[in-house]
Hints:
The structure holds 2 protein chains of 2 kinds. Helices cover 75% and strands 0% of the residues of chain A. By secondary structure, chain A is mainly alpha-helical. Chain A has helices spanning 2-6, 10-22, 26-37, 46-68, 77-92, 98-120, 125-145, 147-150, 175-196, 199-209, 211-216, 221-247, 257-270, 275-295, 300-314, 316-330, 332-340. By secondary structure, chain B is mainly alpha-helical. Chain B has one domain (2-214). Chain B has a two-stranded antiparallel sheet with strand order 1-2. In chain B, a hairpin with a 2-residue loop joins strand 1 (127-130) and strand 2. The mean pLDDT of chain B is 81. The chains are: A mainly alpha, B mainly alpha. The interface between A and B is large, with 43 and 44 residues.
Amino acid sequence: MTDITSSLPPVARAGRFLAGEARWSWLEIGFWVVAFGLAFFFRSNHLLFAEIAILALFAVSLDIILGYAGIVSLGHAAFFGLGAYTVGIMARSGWGDPLTGLAAAGVTAGILGFFTSFLVLRGSDLTRLMITLGVASLLHETANKLDWLTGGADGLQGMMVGPVLGRFSFDLYGTTAYVYALSVLFVVVLGLRILVHSPFGHALRAIRDNPLRARAIGIPVNRRLIAAYTLAAVIAGIAGALLAQTSGFASLDVLEFHRSADVMLVLVIGGSGRLYGGILGAIVFRFAQDAISTITPQYWQFWIGMGLVILVLAGRDRLETVGRKIVGRALPWIANKEAAR
Amino acid sequence: MLTILFDGISTGMLLFVLACGLAVTLGLMNFVNLAHGAFAMVGGYVTVIAMQRFGVPFLATLPLAFLIAAAIGLVLERTLYVHLYGRSHLDQVMFSIGLVFMAMAGMDWFMGSSPQNVILPEALKGRFDFAGIGIGRYRLFLVVICGILAVALQLTLSKTRFGSRLRAAVDDQRVARGLGIRVQTIFAATFAVGSGLAGLGGALGAEILGLDPSFPVKYMVFFLIVVTVGGTSSIVGPFLAALMLGIADVGSKYYVPELGSFVIYAVMIAVLIVRPNGLFARPGR
């Protein structure tokens, strides 16, 4: 393989390498087939699956700014919550169509993301942490105080969510919810796949690794970051909207600090800076949470926290290598296939 | 009016004692420690347990709160934190959030989730009038204690040998080590004192801020505001920021209660937009 490519001019070699990165692997195709196939099995678990798909979407949106652009955010729940409240308020006032609701949630969250992105551009990591945290707290406080609009601490009640595409209404088992959330996740991942392998995606990674150098080779750093932040906000808003629609409820919980922390944890478990990291993390996190909370319903947070501490102390990179080795052993066929390329 | 100002000042002083440890670890040592509030919570619970289970008088529990929180801080610094000094901010954030979750769930398991009350001694209860200003005795007590602590801290940092060693270790670890300064020991001691002060603040503040297992997250934003708005170059900046925050908090809750904490967050964001490195940052750093 090396002898063929090394005879090519460098630009073509780089192009071939990048195209190889962007190619669909069998693992990916298999994943989506299984995920959609699950719609026909395990009916009683579909609500849980739907939750996982929504959490995965939320984590993927954080990945754009954290994993690809390298901005540490402690307030990503702001966009999630705004999306949830947007569809919630629309559905309460009679506009119950899910898809247009999603679009509206994406737009409002995107507007907030666009305007707050200018604040995030400034200052160091610490300032960014504070600003993102501050924006989320501000929204939480607003939702708490505007109880005529949001129901305050009681949550938003009386949402009437219509059937998806006018045909599939939400059922008790959550099958519609699952397929709906998964489809949205699929579409978003498809779009992001193109995006992260485009020059835009490469520019973001360059900025993450070395902003100074990225600027020096002519990448408009601020414009790229604003675009990335806005896009992440749009997707987080859609995730929040999905949660409100599938559960028929929105409360202050969607804006709480622990939501921002959880999604970061999800992303770190799955591995940031790769599209499927958030999805993998969401699956692991939600099943772990489910398992632990059946054993100790009240104190599952303790074990999650401990997992986090161990994860960081053991070193995220090291765990990743171990994980790769395990996957490589378990699926030698796929590994060989990848190596043969 | 002046009563509110006084209440604000005392809340601000309290916030300073709670946050000054963080000002050192986050501001000077550049370690994002979101778990700072957990040490404050430990201090608060030490006071509650000592008073309710062992009948220790309130004033005697305060040094206890300081010592136990400092001891826990020291142990954690030596075993866990020390591995994370050079790591990325993301790692530090994840690690300290993990600690917060553990502390909150652990305290919930240990003490239950209901809010705890601290019964103040009779001498500290009530109010008296001084030149037309109603002054709460406990508030006055807070101002005196916290004021003494603030002055002592500032003097330690600027005048003693330990203070200059700490500043040297923070400014340039390698050179400081080359000069024979034991950087590790100094960091450990600083971290322990910072945690201890947080514990003391938690014990003092249990009456005013309330105490339940969600304490670390509820006041995390406040501590971080003190440090970021105050700037990270000295102890005076955080002190002034804490005073402003206290006055703004008490004032806005009194005059415009319908806005709640809205004012504080908005002011913080505005300040950080205008001065990303804090209000009192030294130029050129």
